[in-house]
Each structure stands twice: as structure tokens, then as C-alpha cells.
Amino acid sequence: MEATYIVDCGHHTLKYAGLSKRNRKAVQVLIKERRSECNAYVTDEERFRQCVPQLLSGELRSDEDLTLILLLDTHHSQKSKATLLYACFEQFGCKKVCLHYTACTGLYAAGETSGVVVDLGYAGVQLTSVHKGAVQTAISTRLSSVGTRSLDDELHRLLHGSATEETLRLVKTHCCSLTERDEMVPELTLPDGSVFPHDDLKRSELHRATKALLYSTTSSVPETLRMVYQKHSIRFSDSTSWVQLGGGSLISGVDEALTRAMAHPLCRHSAKQLHLKDVTHAPVSGGIILSQLNVFKSMCIGVADYEEYGPDGCLHMQVVDAR
């Protein structure tokens, strides 16, 4: 039997889906998420090499042939990809491997193959230009001084370093906002029974902390998004779409800040914002769509090709970016 797994191994959580063909008529789909057990500062290939075996050991049956779709960051290096291919075939025992990008499959989930993707992740914000399913690395960029981790650091400072992960999640969901107001923050009962805020914390203070998600002393996500979109629209005049991914997109006021930036009069074309049902799992959903297309088989690297050409040779056979 054949089993296909789509894996989006983020710095904070591991999101994946398993498609198992138990018989010719039915396809069972399992979509799950788990906390990444890796340190957020390890390299991308090391994170995959640690997390994927743990995932497969509890999910994959011994009689199933494994096809693995790994969703990568836009600027994943060729050397890192070769290392991942080696691990997939030599360590994980894969029969087929497809290396693709979270930005591309996120667009697939929105029904498009071209556009600009802003991924508000834990360890940074990735802004990617995609045209006809291929990432355009030359006009894409990554901002490492912003993101959800920066927001968490600011909240730890406000809460005097005593906040648990569940506390941070509740505060970000119910209290954080990029819309500045002067009234008091509404009280929130935390899992340990305590009440947030512990003192007279004003919403304006929480607003300043929340800005760390999009702004730092050296970076501005709205301005960078507008710049990437302008370059994208000049190069690909028929592509006007953009979409948000990542857990940071769920913070109140983020959508308004980015939409306001995209309405700037310097933009050559009127930008069309795409909306997703689930911004955190959209890349995996797009990976499921990709795995059902006829073209998917040609995008995979088989074990026979790997044995003949090696990891470096196989990478030249699979063109999914503009490099």
C-alpha cells in the first residue's frame, strides 16, 4: 500500500497530513498538528531530520510505501535540499520524495498559482513572490527581526517572564491588537486561575508590545510587503493576488495593517487579497491538493533516480524555483 505524507515543519509547530490508500476506492486523510520538539534556532534541515522520524514512527504502517512531500522555506539552500534528500532515502526509507515550498502550496489552497505570499511565522516573516507555481527568490525576502517570537518576548517582558505557552496563546488571542486604544485591557481568566492583567496594564502598552509582530528598529512588514508586491507586479503584470499565512495573521489588526499598505497609490495594479479558511494549515491543505494532481508524479524524485544520480543530480531534475 502507498502512503503520502505532507509535512510543514515550522520553528514552533509541526503540521502534517497523511493520505493512505487502504483500498482502490477510498483515500483516508489525517490532518494533525503537534508542538515541535526541536530548538527554534536549529537549522532547517536539522529540524526536519529530527522531527520527521518521530512523526513517522507513530503514524506509518510497516506495509506502506512512503511518499514524502516536504514543504520548505523560500530561501532553503541547494546544499540543505541535498542533505534532506539523503535523509529521506537513506534514513527514512522513502520511495518517492517531493521538495516544495510553503508559499506555493499556500497559494494552491487559495485556488491560485501566482501571487505574493506573506507568511507571519514564529521565527520571522517570509515574503515570497510566486509565479505559476515557482518561487521567485530574487524578489522574495525574509525578515528575522519580527514575527510571533518577537511578540512573545515582549509579552514575557510585560508579564515579568512568568507566562506559560498557554497563557501567551490566550493573551494573543483575546487581548493583543495593533489597533491603539486608551481603555483598560479586559480581564482574562488564565488556566492557573489567575486574572490577566495582574496590574493596571493599559491597552496602549499591550499595543506597543504587539507591534513587535510587524515592526522592529530595522524592519517593517507592511512596507516590505508593498515593495515585494511592486516588484512582483512589474515583472508579472498578469498577477495581482496576495495572501497571508501563519499564526501571526490571526492577531487582531494585522489584516488591517497589511491591507492598508497594499492600498498605497504607488502600487501599479490594484491588489487582490485572497482569503483562506485556515491560515495556519493552508500549506498542508495545498500539499494535499498537489498530491492529487496528475502532474504530481513528475514532481517527485523516485528511489531509482536517487540511486542513479545522487542527491545533487536529482535536484537539477526537479525545478520548483527560479534558481
TrEMBL record:
SMART domains, A to Z: ACTIN
InterPro entries attached to this UniProt entry: Actin (IPR004000), ATPase_NBD (IPR043129)
Residues forming coiled coils: none
Signal peptide location: none
Top-rank taxon, per record: Eukaryota
Protein family (similarity comment): Belongs to the actin family.
Designated name of the protein: Actin
Source organism: Leishmania shawi
